[in-house]
Amino acid sequence: AQTVTQSQPEMSVQEAETVTLSCTYDTSESDYYLFWYKQPPSRQMILVIRQEAYKQQNATENRFSVNFQKAAKSFSLKISDSQLGDAAMYFCAYKNYGGSQGNLIFGKGTKLSVKP
Amino acid sequence: DARVTQTPRHKVTEMGQEVTMRCQPILGHNTVFWYRQTMMQGLELLAYFRNRAPLDDSGMPKDRFSAEMPDATLATLKIQPSEPRDSAVYFCASGLVRTSGYNEQFFGPGTRLTVL
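Above: the input entities. Below: the structure tokens describing the complete assembly.
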């Protein structure tokens, strides 16, 4: 069974600085997706970024980028120029490729605080 | 602006009472997921449906939980009888799964359940 581990329960960053959130996962599959979700106090789950395992290039979305290390099964999220609105819980998630197993497997989350 | 809706947003009930949570997936989506979020366990899959048929409900306590899709526009999650340990946020998500390629899951706002 696949597992996702986030080893940092809480992180803090100064506004405008850069922070990296860590995630490791375990799977025997070669094709899969990895995601970072943001959950603000409103509880809404918001997709931040996704990475296809077959792509070597790291995904980027504006201030958000990932460092995907397939051999090490590591998938970290870097937030640049942190803003107060980035404060939230961040969840790393895994999904098998293809339609047969469509559910997401989540890590326990990292609570990010942004200091003004 | 298509979105997943869930009702009720909040529910407080007493132990032993029946609880029904409802989800309206995005029109045209063929897959519906139920996730539960607690502080201890994080986000975990309870059940999911494809074209209204249950594909996986292994995460759901069978003795008290039941999930159904009476039609393509409604998914229900029922707990009978409810217990204090069922207190959690229950998320519904929907997606359009094809034979290959990426398919995003769109999350509803969640139902916060408190069982006294």
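Note for the figure: The first strand of chain B starts at residue 5 and ends at 7.
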